[in-house]
Amino acid sequence: MPIWEWLYNNYFHVQTSGWGQIPTKQKVLVVGSHNGGLAAPDMIMMMWEWFHRFGMEQPIYGLMHPSIWKVFPHVAKIVAKTGAIFAHPKMAYMALRSGASVLLYPGGAQDVFRPHHLRNKIYFANSKSFIKLALREKVPIVPVISCGAHDTLYIITDAYDLVNKLHELGMPWLLGIDPIVFPIYIGLPWGLGMGPLPNIPLPIPIHTRVCPPIVFDHYGEKVACDRNYVDQCYELVLSQMQLELDALVRVAKTRIHLPFYK
């Protein structure tokens, strides 16, 4: 994957840390916060880094939204070469049971297209299925965070509520698919973009970090069906990741990057 390596070193100038937190010879559920629109550059860079470090000795699959496979099949095929699979609970369970680790982003489209002023906030859109997955499969959660990727485009707002009202009045969805979000953003190649369209990320430096594994007190089917326990685990992951992201943002702000003047 030479193109990913070039992007990693020369376009995004990725700085990373914490890879020693990945348990050796143990499958894990890697949970991240989505950034940067459909391009999601931090996700691609994270997948490349994983394969660069571990090769096939520690395989990993990343869940990708079903709409990408349907609307942009050619893009999906390219990303599939980095380990992307269809985002569905059955696929996640199958991947873990095969002995591989799984990378997922619980917030999905609502996270990857959150407004720019929320760029340093962990946002999972109250999606808790990943907690149940970890509990049922008895695997630790390894959080991954990034800073900078959500600056590769500037998301002004999400106009989904307005567009949905127009849909209720008779306006059809493009390709018959409910987009879930309808961002208005400034970025390449559109200038002013509207809707969840593919984007070309700006060459903004990205910091990534692998955080310490989170191991819950109890695992199994019984606790996975306990709503209160699932909520507790969810809040634990959310708070831990926010603390880690706050710390990473402080570190990133102390480093001045001038990639165009090297």
Automatic annotation (TrEMBL):
Keywords: Acyltransferase, Transferase. InterPro entries: P_lipid/glycerol_AcTrfase_prd, Plipid/glycerol_acylTrfase. Residues 15-145 form the Phospholipid/glycerol acyltransferase domain. GO terms for cellular component: membrane. It holds the Pfam family Acyltransferase. GO terms for molecular function: acyltransferase activity. This is Acyltransferase family protein.
